[in-house]
Amino acid sequence: MLRRFTLATLLGSALLFAVQPMVARALLPLTGGVPALWNTCVVFFQCALLAGYAYAHLAPALVGPRALPLLHVALLALSIAALPLSFAGLAPPPDGDLTRWILAALALRVAALFVLLSTGAPLLQRWYTRASGADPRPLLAASNVGSLVALLAYPLLLEPLLPLRAQSRLFAAAYVAYVTLVARAAWDVRRTPPDAADGAPPPARTPRAVWLRFVALAFVPSSLMLGVTTHLATDVGSFPLLWVAPLAIYLASFIVVFARPPGAPSPRVAAPYLSLLVMMFLFTAPQVATRLPIAVGHLCLFAATAYILHGELARTRHAAGSVTAFQLALAVGGALGGAFNALLAPRLFVRVTEYPLVMALAVLLIPEAPPLPDRREREEAFLRSVGVDPGAVLAPRAPRPVVRRWTLADALVPVAVGALAVALARAPEMTRAPSLVRFGAPLMLLVLTAIGRRVRLALGLLAILAAGRFDRAVVDASRTFYGVLRVDDARGVRRFLHGTTLHGLQYLSPKRRREPVAYYAPASPIGQVMAALGPGLDGRSVGVVGLGVGMLLAHARPAQRWTFYELDPEVVRLARSHFTWLRDARAPWSVVTGDARRTLARDRGARHGLLVLDAFSSDAIPTHLVTREALALYLARTDPRGVIAFHVTNRHVALDGVVAALARDAGLVALLGRATAPSPDGPIPTTWVVLAREPAHLGALAADRRWRRVDRDARSRPWTDDFSNVLGVIRWR
């Protein structure tokens, strides 16, 4: 019996955590490949998990322990009709709320399966105890192992090896096997005669204050998990490996602390943790781009926070009146954390403020560390170790107070560091100073004056965070489903940033405002493309996926027609309001808003002589725009001599090989161009890949030594809407 129950629990937990990245991956091509997709999916899964726990908690009392197994197996059998999982036939509205559409699509296609899977572990543990009278701890261990293994296996094995359709079929087969195992477990329970346990008195009620504290302790790690995911995915990319890493850390912390609950952190643990927290708080500043060491630091901070707060939950869970009440508190806190990040924060903040905000809240929830022993306490410990009564040798003294009282400095220090941060943010000479300089000084002052004072440190962090709203350089800032946008002025240059990545700029001087720089400078690869193809594009159309600020129009000629395909309408507003590239254009132009795949598919009459793919989400390129199906659409929207140019500059992933593999698969010619382009912030390296049906269609580029042919050397498997392998193109160095 133990073997059957263990296998059912292991398989159910594995399916529960494998379906989450699989479903989100299936939604990527439909939603523009943005980081907010995963957060929206997670909050749905957390709410569904809460519904499953409520079902497991209430159903035995409402239905009865004898009838529940039959009801549960019947519901599982009915849910098989939803297999295989697919979103075929669903499409988001062109101008609708994507968050609502994602939640509706998940509720329609996934909700029933996920809720029933989430009830598996608690119900099987209850049934096993009732059928055998044994301790269900082996089932708890199996649940934890299955969850973590499945979560890690998806980005490391399933996604790189299997297309989505094969993944869905594999999930369907495993789900049918799971239903069979649960039905066998239900049969074992039904054969068990009623016993005295059915009439046991109800468990004691959990005090409200204790239950709310459990909710708060569960809220912070849940929110931080999504905060660190958004912070990393905005720069690196939205794909399952980055989704799964924080979630795996979150789950692993639960496994570790509930296997052996830790004690309250000592000062030797609390001090390094708080130091790491302050450092990572500094690296959440808007101008600080993510690098691999910083990403590792954020993940380490999240792991430490989850371990400490989940450890406090494990250490104090005896205060709960029942196991199910405790589980409900954890589920409510997790769902609230997900809802705060995915649903509320984007409407409250124009930056990813929720991440550092919850960092500060974590400081308040850390258990108070006992003070380190002083000299007297060390002497007493030594005397006891040698068998001597300390009271017979040492004079008595009053015990040291452990609880620190509030002081006036706890209010004055945060005000002082906040005022310093505001002064640095408003100082004209600091407008282009790095964020590490502007926020580093207030943080250093705070650390020096808040050692050992949690409340003072938390309030000081909040004050520095609030000071960011007074940044003198910021001209405009907004936040949409697709990311955080900012326009700032400094040293005679206006810049447009998406996340931490520069997406366009313009000199404020009238003499230089028409001068293209950075990625679009004449010396850049796209500048070389426009110089080589420009005259040949007269009388033809140019299509550009991704508007930015419209700087590419500096290369336009009067006889050309330009069409921009822009995902985010807010980008169009900022380009029109704060930059003059569109107004100064010498060629007629138009902007079509919406996801480029869908808008290009609808624009059946388009035949572009040049199609430029320059769609970024911060530094992350949407993977659904570099697939076989996407390339087929691009070819259908270019004329017979048309050229397709991919902007693949990226700090974190090497997409030039992906585009080269697509070119080889389609029988196209692919040239790679790299250059270092001038910019007011210093030289910027930029990489482009151009594709054509014949070398002659590339004009002078075909003989340009600065360009190298790459399609013949491509060996990797081309990406499709059904398959991608981001793990294989990450720049680990």
Overview of the molecule:
By secondary structure, this protein is an alpha/beta fold. The chain has four domains: 1-194, MFS general substrate transporter like domains (Growth Hormone, Chain: A, Up-down Bundle), CATH 1.20.1250.20; 207-319 and 341-370; 409-470, no CATH class; 514-729, Rossmann fold (3-Layer(aba) Sandwich). It is 53% helix and 11% strand. It has 24 helices and twelve strands. The chain has helices at 2-31, 36-63, 68-79, 98-109, 111-118, 120-132, 137-161, 164-191, 208-236, 240-259, 267-282, 292-316, 323-348, 354-365, 375-385, 390-393, 409-426, 435-449, 454-467, 525-533, 569-578, 596-602, 628-636, 656-666; strands spanning 474-480, 483-490, 493-498, 501-507, 541-545, 561-566, 589-593, 608-613, 638-647, 669-677, 684-692, 707-709. The strands form two sheets. Strands 7-6-5-8-9-11-10-12 form an eight-stranded mixed sheet. A hairpin with a 2-residue loop joins strand 1 (474-480) and strand 2 (483-490). Helix 6 runs parallel beside helix 8 (164-191), helix 9 (208-236) packs antiparallel against helix 12 (292-316) and helix 11 crosses helix 12. It starts with a helix and ends in a 24-residue tail after the last strand. Residues 196-200 have low confidence and may be disordered.
